[in-house]
Amino acid sequence: MLEQDYPTRYDASITEQKWYEAWERDGLFQPEENSTKESFVITIPPPNITGSLHMGHALCYSIQDLVGRYHRLRGKNVLVLPGQDHAGIATQSVVLKQLKKEGKNPLEMGREKFVERVWEWRKESGDTIIHQFRRLGHAFDWSRSRFTLDDEYADAVLKVFIDWFDRGLIYRGLRVVNWDPVLKTSVSDIETERKVIKGKLYYIRYPFADGSGDVVIATTRPETMLADVAVAVHPSDVRYKDKLGKNLILPLMNREIPLIADIYPDPEFGSGAVKITPAHDPNDYEVGIRHSLEMPVVLDESARVNENGGPYAGLDRYEARKRIVADLEEQGFLVEIKDHEIALMVSERSGEVIEPLLREEWFAKQTELSKPAVEAVKQGKVKFVPERYEKIFLDWMDNIRDWNVSRRLWWGHRIPVYYAEDGSSVAALSWEQAEDKSGKKIVSQDDYVLDTWFSSGLWPFATLGWPEQTNDLKSFYPTNLLVTAQEILYLWVARMIMMGLDRVGDIPFHQVYIYATVLTEDGKRMSKSLGTGVDPMAVIESVGADALRFTLLSQTGYNQDIRYSERKTEDARNFCNKIWNAVRFVLLNVEKAPAEPSHLEDVDRWLLSRLHATEETVRNAYEAYDNQAAAQALYKFFWNELCDWYIEVSKPRLADPATRETPQWVLLTCIEAFLVMMHPIMPHLTEEVYSRLPIANKAPFLMSAAWPNLDESFKAPEIESKIERLFEVVRGLRALRADLGLAAMKTIPLAFFEGDLAGGEDVLRSQAWLEGLLNGKPTNEGFISTTVMGVDLHLPIGDLVDPEKEQARLIKDEEKFAADLAKLEQRLDNPEFVSKAKPEVLLRDRALAEELKSKIAKIADRKKLFGG
Q: Angle at Cα 400 formed by Cα 396 and Cα 401, nearest 5°?
């Protein structure tokens, strides 16, 4: 019966869907209403509705599911609240690409029709993401799922903007922004990628107007010189002390610009002089502000030269560059051109090179809002894991700048600013409210939308019903944990803390855990466009969600990079099968829950003591978000200690009706506790196996069971030492077998031991390959011996090994390894080879040399066994 109901191979495809549906059907994802339990709350970072989840998402959200499941097992009232982000520029880019393929022009569609099309995509992408979360086994409360453009959420966003506007924290002003010439909108730093290319550095001569010489500057973007308004040198640079204040002639444009002193130039770099173009460089903009310089713009929204560019007007920026360089050379202003590596900012969405551009945009003042956030972190109200991110966060907050909150898009929260006939503006929730508030006739609304990070900054409290004082807000705010990526520490984490303190009056979360980046096996960034991405759904189809979760979670602790490989997922799948089959073996040997025994053998006490130690390790690791340590401890306990040792040693007792109840009870006790502890990592498999265990007082679901409360009497360090010594002796016997080159299934009729095994002879006799064991020294010849932990072990070789043939084989192997080692050492002793070889080649060869030395030493030991 069991053989039919419990196959020898675990089938994740059946188990995972079955249990997810059962958990959801029973309402286990929702917190209890009006509960007296301590709450534990996570509002998950809302994924962008730009397609599907990648491997980094799989890790991020599996960490949060693990934490939620752990705290539920610890008896807390858990809420893990899901949702999705409208992701303004990212989502609009996806839909624009779709329309381009279809040959449709969004301008011809108009704003309203375009937004309708994006809502259609939101449904498609959103459904895909929810399906993927479910496939991964994430226990999220779908009844509370939110979207950042839902009506209630949007209302909260607009109310924050209006409040800040009315308080003077929002203003419209000129700043240099990251401009995408294709999407024709400003973008945040997180929406750009750094790309290093081989470019050119152009050295250009700027003559003094009075004919007293010239200054040579270097630039990678000669097209921007059309908007130069000054040349700057450092005040301490003695080369220019007598020339400060003089005017220079701007080549090609033939207008005079001043030589000024500013702290920005580096006197040690090149000529020490830099051209200042405030409208097209953020650093130059700061110089322009300090010196009240004019800020002419020479590139338009498409990165073409505008009317301020004189004869170059209408040219694309790169065409203009070619023409300008040619004219500079022709007119004698070009000194030289050098090859130069250039770090470009590229739009993540359009792939276009970002153009720093002076634009009139909406900004939010940050200085006033940042102070309480800084204090909250300094006072330990918000803690970072790993701790090093606290300093990174505070350093950035100390240098915070006003936030560009506007985007020139159609998809997003339209900025709630309305304009009257006289040009005045007012912030309001609607056209009607704007007229009531201003007492004027409103003629238009601002065309821009809010930066995505503005709306997502409200996520921890707007998802709970703010600005209404809902029960959820009262019960679940502040949340306990935010799990996020390091690259949005400033763009999102900082703003959530500022907004939470400003609008709700409290921090949004107590802890921020920065999770690791998932890399390929060889350490490369995972990227769909680069062909290095791995689809987590494809992995789940192959090995199951639990195997993928174990692969990822077993590598996450305080490290910031983990490497994914197919081999690791196969190892995880094998571990799933190990758990499955070990429990299958136990069920074949246990029909009903046995009573707790009155007497335990030493080996029983050893396993219970190891269980107690494992529980403490795993609990502490989960609390500290060191999932790697938890997974390793669980793996070691189950595979090495319970399966490899206890089950093997206990098989004779399990086969005897007179002795089987004690190992049955020990096995069920340890497996039940193990399943509870492993559940946060492998929820489906553990639930399935738990449902089959014949144990008393079983919870309806493992997911809602209680964390193991183990008896202190389980702790037995002295027994652990005793049994570990016996296991070391067994390892010695196994090593001796290996030295003889015996096949795994080859049995040994009789072995002898001399020494004190402290009553542990049964442990040795339990080895399936050993038919007999006697205490004493063998009287006849034909035995080989070794000593382990003070115990002499003797194995017969007469019928097992031909000493002469074995000696000849060992000599042959020794000669081959010695020859290989000599070649390697000759190469490594060659200075020319060492100087030219790649570091990884040297590491490989040195490691191989050490491995060969170890093999030769081992052969020498084995030769001694045969008189060599």
A: 145
The pLDDT of residue 487 = 86
Joined together, the tokens standing for residue 332 give 């004698």
Q: Which residues of the chain have pLDDT under 50?
A: 1
Phi, psi of 342 (to 5 degrees): -120, 130
The CA distances from residue 381 to 193, 377, 390, in Å, are 33, 6, 12
Cα separation, 61 vs 67, in Å, equals 10
The H-assigned helical ranges of 655-747 are: 661-678, 683-692, 717-739
> Computed over its alpha carbons, how large is the radius of gyration of the chain?
36
β-strand partners of 40: 78
d(CA 497, CA 396): 14
Q: Are 93 and 18 in contact (CB under 8 A)?
A: no
Q: Annotate 335-356 with b (16+ C-beta within 10 A) or e (fewer).
A: beeeeeeeeebbbbbbeebbbb
For residue 425, report the phi and psi dihedrals to the nearest 5 degrees. Answer: -130, 155
Contact 230, 260 (CB under 8 A): yes
pLDDT tens track for 723-758:
888 888 778 777 777 777 776 667 776 676 666 776
From residue 412, alpha-carbon distances to 58, 149, 153, 446 in Å are 26, 7, 12, 13
Question: Residue 413 has what DSSP assignment?
Answer: -
Instruction: Specify whether the CB–CB gap between 31 and 78 falls below 8 A.
Output: yes
Tell me if 763 sits within 8 A of 724, measured CB to CB: no
CA distance 285 to 788: 75
Per-residue tokens: 390: 């606290």
pLDDT of residue 359: 93
Calculate the dihedral angle through the C-alpha atoms of 299, 305, 309, 315, rounding to the nearest 10 degrees: 170
- Residue 55's beta-bridge partner residues? none
Residue 783 CA to residue 249 CA, distance in Å, equals 99
Length of the chain as a residue count? 868
**pLDDT attached to residue 349:** 83
State how far the Cα of 93 lies from the Cα of 119, in Å rounded to an integer: 14
Closest listed residue to residue 70, CA positions, set 480, 547, 678:
678
Give the CB-side neighbour count of residue 759, counting CA atoms within 13 A. Answer: 5
User: In this structure, what token pair is assigned to residue 765?
Assistant: 């006799």
Nearest alpha-carbon partner for 303 in 255, 256, 260, 357: 357
How many Cβ atoms sit within 10 Å of the Cβ of residue 446? 16
Q: Positive or negative, the Cα torsion across 178, 181, 187, 191?
A: negative
Q: Distance between alpha carbon 299 and the CA centroid of its chain, in Å? A: 39
Distance CA 562, CA 555 (A): 6
Distance CA 856, CA 861 (A): 9
Helix 602-623 × helix 661-678 angle, to 10°: 10
Contacts of 76 (CB under 8 A, 6+ apart): 37, 38, 39, 40
The CA distance from 389 to 614, in Å, is 30
The amino acid occupying position 511 is Q
Instruction: Tell how strand 77-81 and strand 39-43 pair up.
Output: parallel
- Residue 60 CA: distances (Å) to CA of 43, 137, 141, 567, 694: 12, 13, 17, 21, 35
> What strand order describes the sheet that includes 334-347?
214-219, 192-207, 334-347
